[in-house]
Amino acid sequence: MAFENLSNKLQEVFKQLRSKGVLTEADVKAAMREVKIALLEADVNFKIVKEFIKKVTERAVGTEVLQGLNPGQQVIKIVNEELIALMGSTQAQLTFSRKPPTVFMMVGLQGAGKTTTSGKLAGQLRKQGRSPLLVACDVYRPAAIKQLQVVGKNYNIPVFEMGTEVSPVEISKKALEYAAQQHHDVILIDTAGRLHINEELMQELQDIKTAVRPQEILLVVDAMTGQDAVTVAESFDGQLGVDGIILTKLDGDARGGAALSVRSVTNKPIKYIGMGEKMEDLEPFYPDRMASRILGMGDVLSLIDKVQANIDEQEALDMAKKMRANDFTLEDFLAQMQQIKKMGPLKDLLGMMPGIPGMGKLDLESALNGVDPQKEMARTEAIIQSMTKEERANPSILNGPRKKRIAAGCGRSIADVNRLIKQFEEMKKMMKQMNNMQKGKKGKFPFF
Ligand code: GDP
């Protein structure tokens, strides 16, 4: 996960600061030296690290901090604020033309994630009630047009293309006419990339820009390339001018240097981050939430967004109702697990919870004690799926022969089936106690 090493290191430094009741200037400076190393190791731009440390140190060695209450906590607060400022302070949203269609021009090097990101963005815009059109302007690689068509098909978004014999400028102009006829209000132009920046590429992009006057030029860069991503962003912005940056593959980048440097170096906001292959994995970028994640304070707000994007509200309400009425069956349990699975790997979800990132990777692993939550869930699912509808609704009918049949059906042992039934009964008991507590009845709190 992104920032994993940085996050672990910073939390180690802060644990030591917090453990001291009184802080001296020397303590702060020593901590800042560690922070500096951690940031450099995370591949953050050197100049930015220097400025960052200077700012934090100046604020942190002030008498108000050192002589105030909880000086360690105060230093962390300053680091948090400066991290947020570094990443742009506020969330930068897309802007839309007053007179539709709004044209977004997607640019970037080959392999950065332009085509897939164009598709994800179009899919999200459609979910918000807009009518997007994808435009295939990479005329150099027939495979690129095909790829956009596949992406479009996946998300059910129409793709405008004119093959490889027409110039990208001509295609863009025709796409605008087509969009007007078909009442599309957003156009996403997937331009051609190159392996490296060159004059020819920049000229072509400039020509498209002049021809269609896009509302925004969105630069897609690959976070995994670290400081190269920042250099690429600087060049594109200098030569073409960009309005926003989309940082992809942050899920595969354990360092996170690009995310921390690119805004400061280019002065252009990161608008979205790519955290995986699915449509919902293209997330709006919130500097404050990202700082929270880095400092191990969790990112509950993003977790809630993820839940809302993946879980059907009515289903969740029905489920809560059943829990309250003590009507929760194994069938519901199964449905609940399937909903959770839609949100991605459980370990990533755990990483968004406050406190848990602070445990560090190793600690999380030792807390799980060799249990892979994903596999565990798949096993539980398989057991429930081996049961008949009647058994799922009423587990009390599960006698010896039935358990034997279920175990054989899912390739588990009878002990596994028994364990699941026991867990389920305990869960129900706990729900009942919680319901009683909410109703004001006396009930022992189940966790203690
Ligand atoms: P393009 O050449 O710029 O159009 O790049 P593509 O859209 O073809 O993407 C290149 C590869 O990166 C594809 O395999 C994508 O699935 C992958 N990719 C794009 N964004 C992300 C992301 O946020 N996370 C991960 N893990 N992979 C991504």
TrEMBL record:
Location(s), subcellular: Cytoplasm
GO molecular function: 7S RNA binding; GTP binding; GTPase activity
Catalytic activity line of the entry: GTP + H2O = GDP + phosphate + H(+)
Example GO biological process: SRP-dependent cotranslational protein targeting to membrane
InterPro entries: AAA+_ATPase, P-loop_NTPase, Signal_recog_part_SRP54_M_sf, Signal_recog_particl_SRP54_hlx, Signal_recog_particle_SRP54_M, SRP, SRP54, SRP54_GTPase_dom
SRP54-type proteins GTP-binding domain boundaries: 269-282
Binding annotation for GTP: 108-115, 190-194, 248-251
Matching Pfam families: SRP54, SRP54_N, SRP_SPB
Gene3D superfamilies: P-loop containing nucleotide triphosphate hydrolases, Signal recognition particle SRP54, nucleotide-binding domain, Signal recognition particle, SRP54 subunit, M-domain
Highest taxon, organism lineage: Bacteria
EC number: 3.6.5.4
Entry comment, domain topic: Composed of three domains: the N-terminal N domain, which is responsible for interactions with the ribosome, the central G domain, which binds GTP, and the C-terminal M domain, which binds the RNA and the signal sequence of the RNC.
Subunit structure and binding partners: Part of the signal recognition particle protein translocation system, which is composed of SRP and FtsY.
Function: Involved in targeting and insertion of nascent membrane proteins into the cytoplasmic membrane. Binds to the hydrophobic signal sequence of the ribosome-nascent chain (RNC) as it emerges from the ribosomes. The SRP-RNC complex is then targeted to the cytoplasmic membrane where it interacts with the SRP receptor FtsY.
UniProt similarity note: Belongs to the GTP-binding SRP family. SRP54 subfamily.
Name recorded for this polypeptide: Signal recognition particle protein
Source organism of this protein record: Anaerotignum faecicola
